[in-house]
Design goal:
Elements lengths: L2 H15 L3 E4 L16 H6 L7 E5 L3 E5 L4 H7 L6 E4 L8 H8 L5 E4 L6 H12 L4 E3 L5 H4 L12 E2 L2 H4 L3 H14 L4 E4 L2 H8 L1 E2 L12 E5 L3 E4 L7 H9 L2 E4 L4 H6 L6 E4 L6 H6 L5 E4 L3 H7 L3 H28 L7 H13 L4 E4 L4 E4 L23 E6 L1 E3 L2 E2 L2 E6 L5 H18 L2 E3 L4 H13 L10 E3 L8 E6 L13 E4 L2 E4 L3 E4 L2 E11 L2 E8 L17 H18 L5 H10 L4
Parallel strand pairs: 1-5, 3-4, 5-6, 8-13, 11-12, 13-14
Antiparallel strand pairs: 1-2, 2-3, 7-9, 8-10, 10-11, 15-18, 16-17, 17-20, 18-19, 21-28, 22-23, 24-27, 25-26, 27-28
């Protein structure tokens, strides 16, 4: 069945239930960025496969709201679906709440599945619709009735991540959480984000592709930790360990009943951005609620010394795999039939040779020439292009290792480049270097750093629509908060111990896309009479191809940075390469 057929079925159910608009998010009940297939209802309904997007279905109209990463992809995938694309963030484009309000009459009903909408988002919707006397119903689960062939929730077993990788035991992490709960005068803390459960318990799973997490919930009190999980996921040895540490296991499906029975005098802490609407409304009305940034979000973002040391090991392994791949690509393009997909497979094979490799950290973006201009391009058998000895291959990829998660983008010249391609590449590089070299006072937020990566592009009237940097998990999700470097201010300071991406870019439709991404660790620099100052340490180890650089556009300081970086790359990786690969790396990293 087509997307149009799916929407027709949905509209029939909406009509029988008196629903005038149905809002479908991308999330699961844990509000995951990348949900398991069991919860990809928006994808099934619309045919749009991007990771971010909201679909709204009215009786006669339908819309999809997504960000600039997916504009080109959405235009292609929504053809013949009857769904109009709304480009979020573009001038004059209403958000979906405004559009609904404009298109519905007073007394209309908007329905959502409250398990897939955060408490914060539901409150915004309710407030927006109230002005037009539109009612919001958060208990309408229409996918259960119309979604045929829905996949089951994955049943894979969980496994332990030893303290040699995590740096802290479960007991130590739980003690940290309870100390923070006491500061907030809370008796209970509800955790539904899957990466937070995995981090706290030093456990990992295989429920979601690319993300080593598992479906579960946690409720933490001062005398008990309650884990809600399907028991067949828990091996006998892990079950015994958890029992010995006073972690009690309940059925995954019993979570909401447990919340109903929360002690009346409980004071429950939760994060409205990470807690779904049904969770909040299931808690007893007489229980006091306290809201704020998830305790684990903050603890998880500040990597400890062991995690940082392991991240550096992961970066070295990933760098070796990348250099082997780049050497192979350099020798092969023009001499063999290589496509976007076959290049992706080759890179994965080099990563798989590294010890403790556990898979890719996301679906590799391998975009040749004009395909590189599609920010989150996913090559398919239909779109797969042959690589030719000209233009760029934009390759955004990453690996999951027990030591850490990697995320790297290299824009690789495959042969002759135009002056525009070289200029664009160099301007992106200038922005990358400016951010990498930044010094800033403690308390600085990502929005205040973002301009550093864009200034060189702005000087030429260029820009990019995505953020400059996101946090990254320790053998967890490739995107994590709370920090980000982007034009939108989330109020969160970039602090020592955080690992963030540095990835400016520029994209010319039907021509090329360029992005250069390394991971950077925030470290302490100095303390003066004006306060404490921080800086970034670049962790990623992989050459940036100088054949695409217009050296005359670089300052001496920028040349010095690239030369020093390349010396570090060579020193760190050369011993793990064979003679030919080492000689190639020496040549590609020679001083400008």
């Amino acid at each position: 069945m087509s997307a149009a057929d799916h929407i027709f079925k949905l509209r029939l159910r909406m009509a029988t239930m008196g629903v005038d608009a149905y809002v479908v998010t991308s999330a699961d009940p844990h509000l995951s960025e990348y949900p398991a297939s069991h919860w990809k209802f928006r994808e099934w309904l619309s045919g749009f496969t991007g990771s971010a997007g909201t679909v709204v279905i009215l009786a006669e109209e339908a819309g999809l709201w997504t960000d600039s990463r997916y504009f080109l992809q959405a235009e292609e995938q929504l053809q013949d679906s009857g769904i109009k694309l709304f480009k979020s963030g573009e001038p004059g484009v209403p958000d979906y709440k405004e559009w609904i309000s404009e298109n519905l009459n007073a007394g209309s009903v908007v329905a959502i599945d409250g398990k897939t909408v955060s408490l914060a988002e539901q409150r915004e919707m309710k407030e927006a619709f109230k002005k037009n006397d539109i009612r919001l119903d958060y208990k309408v689960f229409l996918q259960d009735e119309i979604w045929e062939g829905r996949e089951a929730i994955p049943e894979d077993a969980i496994f332990e991540l030893p303290v040699e990788y995590t740096g802290l035991s479960r007991k130590e992490k739980i003690e940290q959480v309870r100390a923070e709960m006491k500061k907030k005068h809370c008796t209970h803390y509800v955790v539904s984000a899957l990466d937070e459960v995995a981090w706290l318990l030093n456990l990992r799973g295989q429920d979601v592709k690319y993300n080593p997490i598992f479906h579960s919930y946690l409720v933490i009190s001062q005398n008990q930790v309650s884990l809600f999980i399907d028991p067949h996921k828990v091996t006998s040895s892990i079950g015994k360990q958890l029992a010995n540490e006073d972690i009690k296991i309940f059925l995954y499906v019993d979570f909401y009943n447990f919340l109903k029975d929360m002690p009346p005098l409980a004071k429950v802490y939760l994060d409205p951005q990470k807690t779904n609407t049904i969770i909040y409304n299931t808690l007893p009305s007489q229980s006091e609620k306290a809201e704020g940034l998830s305790i684990i979000t903050r603890l998880k973002a500040i990597k400890n010394d062991t995690e940082i040391a392991n991240f550096k090991k992961a970066m070295k392994k990933d760098g070796v795999a990348m250099v082997k791949f780049l050497y192979w690509l350099d020798r092969s393009v023009g001499n063999a039939d290589i496509t976007e997909l076959s290049a992706t497979a080759k890179l994965r094979s080099f990563r798989a040779q590294q010890e403790n490799f556990k898979g890719d950290s996301f679906n590799t973006i391998s975009g040749y020439a004009s395909n590189g201009a599609i920010v989150h391009y996913a090559a398919s058998s239909e779109s797969d292009r042959k690589l030719e000895p000209k233009s760029f291959l934009l390759l955004d990829s990453g690996g999951q290792y027990l030591e850490g998660t990697t995320d790297i983008t290299r824009t690789i010249p495959l042969g002759t480049l135009t002056d525009e391609e070289k200029t664009d590449f160099t301007l992106v590089l200038k922005g990358h270097i400016a951010l990498a070299k930044a010094y800033f006072p403690k308390g600085t937020r990502g929005v205040q750093l973002d301009i550093l990566a864009r200034q060189a592009l702005w000087n030429y009237g260029l820009n990019y629509g995505h953020g400059t940097g996101h946090g990254i998990g320790h053998f967890l999700c490739v995107h994590e908060g709370p920090q980000s470097i982007r034009p939108q201010d989330n109020g969160i300071a970039v602090d020592a111990g955080m690992i963030t991406s540095n990835e400016p870019g520029v994209y010319r439709k039907d021509k090329h896309g360029i992005r250069i991404e390394n991971l950077i660790l925030t470290t302490r620099d100095k303390e003066t009479e004006f306060g404490e100052f921080l800086k970034f340490e670049t962790l990623t180890l992989c050459p940036i191809d100088q054949r695409a650089i217009k050296a005359e556009l670089l300052t001496n300081e920028e040349k010095q940075w690239i030369n020093q970086y390349h010396q570090e790359v060579f020193d760190a990786l050369s011993a793990a390469l064979d003679a030919e690969e080492g000689a190639w790396l020496k040549e590609i990293t020679k001083a400008l």
